User: Fold these one by one.
Assistant:
Number 1:
Amino acid sequence: MSDHPRVIGVSLARGHHFSKQPALEIRLLTGLGVAGDAHMGETVKHRSRVAKDPTQPNLRQVHLIQSELFDELAARGFNVQPGDMGENIATRGIDLLRLPEAARLEIGGEAIVEITGLRNPCVQIDRFQQGLMQAVLDRDADGALIRKAGVMAVVIRGGDIRVGDPIRMRLPEGPARPLKPV
């Protein structure tokens, strides 16, 4: 990918909606997520997860998606812009899907998020644009499912994030653990 990974979009939604509204900036709060976003909190906020066990830790405080996916989807006839797929941060120049669990991203001048796992796409994607669910799923050479709808993270250190902010990656020590859905 690019030599200069950066933020190309930031979004949030106060209510539980599939898409999030683009913003000029978002504020990450340590241990909580995006200030003012429906998924902010120490425990799960995703409605289906709350129904199962509202005391689970929130491993989905921040949703990041690589904007290169938007290019791929456009080539297949879909129109997807930052925020449309419910992500808080759209990136360019970093292959989020290949990051190991516990990789940290330093975003802008202050914020640090730690990658917890893959976003598991759900049927709401097809309600947004018919056929999009299948378009964000793929298979590798061995037939294993590839989920391309972004990654989830927790906030290690808060800060404000704006379009154009640089992203620096820090890999965890020890053996890399591949991302799994969270």
Number 2:
Amino acid sequence: MTRDDLDTPALCLDLDAFDDNVRDVATLCALQNIDWRPHAKCHKSPIIGQRLIDAGAIGLTCAKLGEAEIFGAAGIQDLLIANMLVGPKKVARLVELRKIADPIVAVDHLDQAQPLSEALHRAGLRARCILEVDIGLNRVGVQPGAATLALAQAVDKLPGLELVGIMGYEGHLMAVADQEEKSRRVQESLELLVAQQHLIGSHGLQCDLVSCGGTGTIHLCSTQPGITEIQAGGAIFMDAFYRQLCLVPGFQFALTVLTTVVSRPTPERAIIDAGRKTLNIEIGKPFVKDRPDLKVQWLSAEHGTLLVEGAPDSLKIGDRLELIPGYGDLTIMLHEQFHCFRGRELVETIPVAARGKLQ
């Protein structure tokens, strides 16, 4: 099959661009002598996850326990679960995952850590544990300073858990428009994170791992002294949000959505067969690849409305277009598989195996 044979809408992956992006992130990390533990919430695929590890990643970061279970069952061992696991069902599932993989669990309160410790200890198991520290996002995270030290000291005493480090997320700074301000604020946030490592270490506790870093700040967080690994995953695909709002340089648009023009109600309006059930529009607006004369105006459930700024006859019913997703993570989760191309030839399909794994 070629791209022309594919029905629409369809999620497509340019493997040549993908390979280049993966190489570029791996090289960036190698040059800075830090590890790469890319977030798997963007691709949700053990096949892609293994390719990232083969390219130099030390493991994967997962947004949910359900994702980690999929990757663990596929044989990927080193998994950071960047979320809080709360409730007896998740605690029991974590114990089972520990039997086949080597997950790292994140906590920001002793009430999360104690049930995990008790269950793992009863099972004769031990899991690595990191503290998530609030470095300005104001979401989860223990407060820096005395609270972080107190939690570290308490977790260090728990059987079943091995305190290994800390993590923080500078996501609130990804879309800061002024690049000098962005650089300064990212540096301040990550200096605060590294200071917590020094604080914990100065009291004789293990804190070797300092994890952070989204794609929107990848070139800044990867150069920050004291950071040991970054979690940026979306750079392997690239999208409109990272390029246009976060102003991330480099990386190619590897991910597209193939769509068909199904209606031309007026000379200045075209309708495509890709809507909100195909693409996410809230975080970043998709745009039409190589067609600056076409603008995505609106998405409804199953239709997209394009504004045609060029000649009316430049776009006809049946024409096929490629859209660069506004935000890859929330687009990929809507699809069952990647259609993977080299040039125009379809060479494989990759299931989005962890799709729907929200628990």
